[in-house]
Amino acid sequence: MTLNLAETLAFVMLGMALLLGLIRLLLGPGSPDRIVAADTLSVITTAGIAGLAVVLDNPLYLDIALIYGVLAFVAVVALARAIEGNRS
Question: Which residue positions in the chain have pLDDT lower than 70?
Answer without folding.
Answer: 1, 86-88
